[in-house]
Design brief:
The complex is a heterodimer of chains A (251) and B (200).
Chain A: H1 12-15, H2 18-34, H3 38-54, H4 59-69, H5 71-83, E1 89-92, E2 95-98, H6 99-123, H7 128-137, H8 142-171, H9 180-210, H10 227-250
Antiparallel strand pairs in A: 1-2
Helix pairs in contact in A: 2-6, 2-10, 3-6, 3-10, 5-6, 7-8, 8-9
Chain B: H1 10-30, H2 36-49, E1 53-56, E2 59-62, H3 66-73, H4 77-92, H5 100-117, H6 128-154, H7 159-168, H8 170-190
Antiparallel strand pairs in B: 1-2
Helix pairs in contact in B: 1-4, 1-5, 2-4, 3-5, 3-6, 4-5, 5-6, 6-7, 6-8
The chains are: A mainly alpha (251), B mainly alpha (200).
Chain lengths: 251, 200
């Protein structure tokens, strides 16, 4: 199972420095997350769409991702107009729908999609290994970076181990259903997974100690900001500032 | 149980971020060099566990298991959950950067509660299954409560949505309770040092 399906590509966003991408994602998502106006949210969505186009990802995969992520928004569309209250009520087939509730659901949907697209185009276009390296260069706690990189490294391994347990259960005619036997079987598979991870951790620890690991990673790829990176950093920071000013002007 | 981006208000996001940062700093202090690998690999194991879908009636739910994580990792659960959520955001875009703090708090604080409230009862084999069941159920209950609180504090119009979320989590509480119970009794038999029951 490939967890990082957006990280392979050749666009300039794939090649950009991870530090630039982390900073820009943080600034843009913060401004969009906190805005209250439709104009700002739509402008943010425009930036997000442009970035997604620039990242040259498979549109099918991006749309599928958006569909899954929007499932929570569907819940909001169902609940907020009925429960938000507030005066201007629209009468729809005998049911009173709250106008502020509808507006809020729409605003949240726009904001959420804008932030997700920025996230996909800026962060998901890097591997976690590169992002971890970038975070380390941004002076995030080295211990947290080591934890992040090791968890990332072993997720695929542990996932394969789980799939092996699952195959073994299937071969023994395990058919999941809503009953205690199913939950017990899953719990034992999970327990086995934890036991395997625990013992693997001990082996990795010994192997790393043998190689003189002191709690810090050194990357062979040196990160170096080039002119394009600086251009992107300033450009997107200006975009974020523009959104901020727009929000201020509309208040 | 993630809150997506774009929903919460600034005060909620900021306080979530501050609490998560404080918890992570304390958690990292407890993760010394010898505990880095177990913590890292258990975070990946819990990440994988969150991909497991367990059948429930006609549908299925995915496991959260923050109660079990809390029992095993204690304070180190904060960085572990932070990392698992960060990876989920990168891989699947569930949650995001700005709500990462709030999402960490809603998962890690219940985990920590389980560590302090339930762990003392795990040492005795007689109370162990009941205590483990309570840990699994309590963690989900507290998480849904915190999610509901974050929504309700952001905008009072979310009150009904918040109640719906707590109600929808009741079956998950029961499932997580059973799974945590069976997993803990399994671990106590197979590899008790994971639960480090001998420690105070």
């Amino acid at each position: 199972m490939n967890f990082e399906q957006f990280s392979q590509g050749s666009s300039f966003l794939h090649r950009a420095d991870p530090r630039v991408k982390i900073i820009n994602t943080a600034v843009l998502s913060l401004v969009i997350a906190l805005c209250q106006n439709f104009a700002t949210a739509l402008a943010g969505l425009l930036i997000a769409i442009l970035l997604t186009i620039a990242a040259r990802l498979s549109p099918k995969q991006v749309l599928r991702r958006l569909l899954i992520v929007n499932s929570f928004n569907i819940l909001l569309w169902l609940l907020l107009p009925l429960t938000y209250g507030g005066r201007p009520v629209i009468d729809f087939a005998g049911i009173g729908l709250s106008k502020p509730g509808l507006f809020l659901a729409a605003l949240i949907t726009i904001k959420a999609n804008a932030i997700i697209l920025i996230f996909i185009s800026l962060l998901a276009t890097s591997t976690v290994a590169r992002l971890g390296h970038g975070l380390q260069k941004l002076h995030l706690s080295p211990r947290l970076c080591v934890l992040l990189l090791f968890s990332y490294r072993y997720i695929t391994v542990i996932h394969q181990e789980y799939q092996r347990l699952q195959r073994a259960a299937k071969l023994r005619c395990f058919r999941p259903g809503t009953n205690l036997h199913t939950y017990k079987t899953y719990a034992h598979m999970l327990g086995m997974l934890l036991v395997k991870s625990w013992n693997r951790a001990a082996r990795v620890q010994q192997a790393m100690a043998l190689r003189g690991f002191s709690g810090r990673f050194y990357s062979l790829q040196e990160l170096e900001m080039n002119r394009k990176d600086y251009l992107m950093l300033t450009g997107l920071l200006l975009g974020g500032m523009g959104l901020f000013l727009l929000e201020g002007a509309l208040k | 149980m993630h809150i997506s981006e774009g929903i919460l208000s600034a005060p909620v996001l900021i306080s979530g971020g501050v609490i998560a940062a404080a918890g992570t700093v304390i958690g990292l202090k407890k993760v010394d060099y010898a505990r880095i690998m177990p913590t890292a690999l258990l975070s990946s194991a819990f990440f994988v566990a969150s991909l497991i879908h367990v059948p429930l009636g006609p549908g299925s739910v995915h496991l959260v298991l923050n109660g079990l994580l809390g029992i095993i990792l204690g304070w180190a659960g904060f960085p572990a959950i932070l990392i698992a959520l960060f990876l989920q955001a990168i891989f699947f875009q569930f949650g995001g950067l700005v709500v990462l703090g709030v999402n960490t708090v809603t998962m890690a604080v219940p985990a920590l509660c389980c560590y302090y409230l339930v762990r003392p009862w795990l040492k005795n084999p007689k109370t162990r299954p009941v205590a483990a069941f309570c840990a699994g159920a309590l963690a989900i209950f507290l998480s849904s409560l915190l999610v509901a609180l974050a929504l309700a504090l952001s905008d009072s119009g979310f009150l009904t949505t918040a109640k719906v979320i707590i109600g929808a989590n009741v079956p998950i509480m029961i499932i997580e309770g059973f799974i945590t119970m069976f997993t803990v009794t399994f671990l106590a038999r197979v590899q008790p040092e994971i639960l480090h029951l001998d420690q105070p």
